[in-house]
Amino acid sequence: MRSMEFSRSHYFASLIFVISGLLFQVKIVTSIGINYGQIANNLPTPENVIPLVKSIGATKVKLYDADPRVLKAFANTGVEFIVGLGNEYLAKMKDPENAKAWVKSNVQAFLPATKITCITVGNEVLTFNDTSLSGCLLPAMQSVHTALVNLGLDKQVSVTTAHSLAVLAASYPPSAGAFRKDLVDCITPILDFHVKTGSPFLINAYPYFAYKGNPKQVPLDFVLFQPNQGIIDPSSNLHYDNMLFAQMDAVYAALAAVGYKKLMVHISETGWPSKGDADEAGATPDNAKKYNGNLIKLISSKKRTPMRPNCELNIYVFAMFNENMKPGPTSERNYGLFKPDGTPAYSLGISAATTTNTTVPPTITPPTAALPDNSSGPGSTGYLSISSATKGRCRVIGPVIFMLVCISLFL
Hints:
Layout: E1 3-4, H1 8-21, E2 32-35, E3 43-44, H2 46-55, E4 58-62, H3 68-73, E5 80-85, H4 90-93, H5 96-106, E6 115-123, H6 131-150, E7 158-164, E8 168-170, E9 178-179, H7 181-197, E10 201-204, H8 207-213, H9 220-223, E11 231-232, E12 239-240, H10 243-257, E13 265-270, H11 285-300, E14 315-318, H12 352-355, H13 378-381, H14 386-410
Parallel strand pairs: 1-3, 2-4, 2-14, 4-5, 5-6, 6-7, 7-10, 10-13, 13-14
Antiparallel strand pairs: 8-9, 11-12
Helix pairs in contact: 1-2, 5-6, 6-7, 8-14
């Protein structure tokens, strides 16, 4: 991918605009994660992205590949990185030797200067309903973990995979969360892997799709973390004032229902688009500002979900930049906190002085530039299109938790 080179004056002018325009009085003490995608031909170089990451207080970055440009640029920053292996690599990674070679080239080669702490193997594989793909997922995860063990890296780098909320068959009330019956036999061995290796369960959660699917029925304040009366789970008597926490606890309930009460749930993607097509309700700069700004405030406040009050939030915002080459509806290209020129897509109200823990400078994550242009790896596909992955999400969330949430709110 091509990267846009800033002139020194343009770059610093943009940076000044960012820092002065993003002010917010709450001191961020909890680390914020950011997804950094590069399906675009006009993005800044990784070196020029570093100040932007610092401006939002991000100390964790999730990549959809293992782009060497990014990993080199962020060496010695202390920022934690998640690197990714695309779905197209799963069959190849079943071979332990291939997995070991990949880990040596894409992880070990950058340690310890770059703090790589996790590898995601595949993205939303189980909800593609492709048995040839899902059958490769766990073996690939196991091979990558074995490679880490053999290289003496398993204590510092974990292995996991990210799932769509469409793995759930039920999500309302949150305490009744349950996995799809057709996926239980496939997902439980993966959960065993998480328990044995100590890795987290990752979920991509987008309350935006609930609102987009039912804008007249889903209370906007409930999905945007705005003040609202919330809902009471009739089974647990727990109170929920935002949809994301309800989604997270539905996942915790689903895990408990199949015997995995102690697994940690991390939100690997969540965000809100600032622009959309005519039929994409709610995709506005004001709503994006409220969702992401309030989310960051929520993370900073150390608030936890009602069902897991002692579990720290681990949330990765989607995404760093608007990406002009992403396929699909207009919203797909407008999830960024920043425009490609480094100016904010909208004002979040965050400053570097108040958001970052000065002892841990933040970092950023681009997709795969390591692969040649004609490769079939993550460099060519980047990461799963939100729109293509959300059909399942909308089916699960729309008719279940979201509509019932609305009914509860107005009863």
